[in-house]
UniProtKB/TrEMBL annotation:
InterPro entries: Bact_2-comp_sensor_kinase, HAMP_dom, HATPase_C_sf, HATPase_dom, His_kinase_dom, Sig_transdc_His_kin_internal
Catalytic reactions on record: ATP + protein L-histidine = ADP + protein N-phospho-L-histidine
Span of domain Histidine kinase: 465-566
Name of protein: histidine kinase
Protein species of origin: Brevibacillus formosus
PROSITE patterns: HAMP, HIS_KIN
């Protein structure tokens, strides 16, 4: 009975009020604690996933930029290394012919530009440059990072992020704050002759989009971003002081293109801030419920837990990929602001995904266009047709037939309006190529096909088989003697084509280098097979493409696998190939 002394003895109202207050506070503490624990756990988990996603997108975006720059440099080097394509006799043209040569060359450099490219130039040792007339060569020579390059550059050098001072229109150092930063790459020109000898390729990409991603991490999440090279050189670091703590949440993302390392550190207090907001609101609700008694405390706690559950459900839906979901915001309190912040974060993620998708599409289109040289074939076809007509009038029927088949092969090679063609059309071009070889060597080789008829509608990248057959006649057969077999099959949505010959085979050292993506190909030798493999990867993702096996003296087998795709689906076709 002594416990009753804690309550008033004469006031029933006070006792009921005390019991109601206790009955209200205990459930509120219990339910509120559970709601706080659950919501805090969900908020931390979703916050961590969102941070991981943004950091991954930053890694992908930078890798895309670096890959584009490296591909541009590789393509330009391949072009300038061929003396039949580039003839530059003088730096500053003094004749009309020299002027046309320079303009054509600079037009070729400009064809590699895209929306994110700041400039593409080839700089000679004297400071003269080829490219758009938007920079000052002498100002470029005075750039500190340019001076730091070795006199004899023998490998690519990533410059990192910097503000270019060498563009026309740059006034003084006061403009540095308003200038857009760029990402630079310098590559030595592989051409060993002419005015391009010992020159350098300079590629600069606009870094505005990357710095927007940096700002999202630094301003929205209070994160600290650092990018370092593999030799420890600092490429980028968030401005201001940052004290590292063992409790920091750290994301490390290596870049595949050049082994740079992205590190993003997020203070644990920043991730815990949303949970602290919920905790503060819960304590305020508990104090208010003690004043307003059981009913108001119960209704208020129910309203709070309902909002948290709706926010939790919204986060769960967003976590499953439904980015169009939005948190319902009907108040301006802490939970309302949390919902507004969450909605803003989801919108930024959607925008980031759209930008990355668009960048990927532009990159793929640029890579596909760069596979073929943009030339006008009409003059070539008209000339060959005229030669064929003259040959027939002169009674040179073999020459006329060879020209006819050559024209058909060239029509398939130079028609860039359709990148994917039916296998049937590709094999027609192959037939014309084989007719040329038969006219050249005579009927000394055999050509066999298996499973082609049932697979004739399946799409294949244009002009992929003819370069492989050309390699067989030039490297595998002696005077055209041998057997070539093509077999096509389809299984589980994948088409597999086997190209076999019984020729000389390939030595293991050369076989290992044929499809190596890291090998720099400064000449056309081995470039055809590599380009065919790249066509399949560009059209059908990186896991598809070629596999080559060969035994010296017994022959070579090339296996190509890609997803089944038809130009005109045939609902009545019931037979798979094989």
């Amino acid at each position: 009975m002594k416990s009753w002394s804690l309550f008033p003895r004469r006031s029933i109202h006070a006792k009921l009020l005390a019991f109601m207050l206790i009955a209200a506070i205990i459930p509120l503490i219990t339910l509120g604690s559970m709601a706080y624990w659950k919501s805090s756990m969900v908020v931390r988990e979703q916050f961590s996933k969102s941070g991981e996603y943004i950091v991954t997108q930053l890694q992908i975006q930078i890798d895309n930029y670096l890959s584009q720059m490296r591909y541009m440099a590789y393509d330009i080097n391949t072009y300038v290394s061929d003396p039949t394509l580039v003839v530059m006799r003088e730096e500053q043209p003094k004749t009309y012919t020299g002027f046309l040569e320079q303009k054509n060359f600079e037009r070729y450099l400009g064809a590699h530009r895209n929306l994110d490219t700041k400039g593409i130039f080839i700089v000679t040792p004297s400071g003269y440059f080829f490219g758009e007339n938007v920079i000052n060569g002498q100002d470029l020579m005075r750039e500190s990072w340019w001076k730091a390059l070795p006199a004899k550059l023998d490998e690519e050098r990533w410059i990192g992020f910097y503000t270019p001072r060498h563009y026309v229109g740059f006034q003084d150092e006061a403009e540095l704050r308003n200038q857009e930063k760029v990402l630079g790459l310098v590559v030595p020109v592989l051409s060993g002759y002419g005015v391009l000898k010992d020159s350098r390729i300079l590629i600069e990409m606009k870094a505005g989009k990357l710095f927007q991603l940096f700002s999202q991490l630094e301003e929205d999440m209070s994160a600290h971003v650092t990018i370092t090279a593999n030799n420890g050189e600092l490429i980028y670091q968030t401005a201001g002081t940052f004290v590292q703590q063992e409790s920091d949440i750290v994301w490390n993302k290596p870049l595949e293109s050049n082994n740079w390392m992205i590190q993003v550190r997020l203070p644990y207090e920043q991730m815990n801030r949303s949970a602290e907001v919920i905790q503060s609101f819960f304590i305020a609700a508990l104090i208010l419920s003690a004043v307003l008694a059981l009913l108001l405390a119960y209704l208020f706690s129910r309203r709070i837990t309902g909002k948290i559950k709706r926010l939790q459900e919204t986060m769960r839906l967003v976590g499953t990929g439904e980015l169009q979901t939005r948190a319902e915001v009907d108040t301006e309190d802490e939970l309302g602001r949390l919902g507004v912040s969450f909605n803003q974060m989801v919108r930024r993620i959607q925008t980031l995904i759209a930008e990355v998708s668009r960048t990927e599409q532009l990159k793929k289109e640029a890579e596909l266009r760069a596979v073929h040289y943009q030339i006008n074939p009409h003059l070539l076809f008209n000339t060959l047709n005229s030669i064929q007509w003259k040959a027939r009038l002169s009674g040179a029927n073999e020459i006329g037939n060879m020209l006819y088949h050559l024209i058909k092969v060239l029509e398939g090679n130079l028609d860039i309006t359709q990148e994917l063609v039916p296998l049937e059309k590709e094999l027609q071009t192959v037939e014309h190529f084989l007719q040329i070889q038969e006219l050249r060597y005579g009927p000394v080789f055999q050509f066999e096909q298996t499973g082609v008829e049932a697979c004739r509608r399946y799409l294949i990248p244009r002009m992929t088989l003819q370069p492989l057959l050309e390699n067989i006649f030039f490297h595998a057969f002696e005077d055209g003697h041998g057997t070539i077999r093509i077999s096509v099959s389809e299984k589980e949505g994948l088409v597999t084509l086997l190209l076999q010959d019984d020729g000389a085979g390939i030595v293991p050292e050369r076989l290992a280098r044929l499809l190596d993506p890291d090998l720099e190909r400064s000449s056309k030798r081995g470039l055809g097979v590599y380009n065919v493999d790249q066509k399949f990867k560009l059209h059908f993702r990186m896991e598809h493409g070629m596999k080559i096996s060969s035994v010296r003296g017994e022959g070579t087998t090339i296996q190509i696998t890609w997803p089944k795709r038809e130009e005109i689906p045939d609902e009545h076709q019931g037979n798979d190939c094989g």
